[in-house]
């Protein structure tokens, strides 16, 4: 797997057409890099089904090219929207199905801290640890996600 980085450029912040003297960093090229790699990988037969995780309407152009060049070759594209977002409505025009992830979907994918692979214990890297006191959705009462505390943390402490 190759990681292709986009880049960030500084932009001046203006209010009512007047420069504030502040700058913000704006991402550039990520959407086009994703689109190009998705199309090229499809042409190179790297996948049969591609999942495009984005709510960016610019990716409707990707869906258009995909439907013209890869769908006839048996490839399938599924638009996946991040939590609290929806996939671009333009996908349906090109026959792209879409689904929306929830926070609970993502939390269900957290790797256990200890796994066994062919009888050998494997430890989850510490950089993949969830926040302290986080509880897997399957271990929560009635499988419901807890309400986050007022301070904005994404889970409540585990009760002993």
Automatic annotation (TrEMBL):
Q: Where is this region: Disordered?
A: 121-160
Recorded superkingdom: Bacteria
Mark out the compositionally biased spans (Basic and acidic residues): 126-142
The protein's name is: NYN domain-containing protein
Q: Which organism is it from?
A: Novosphingobium marinum
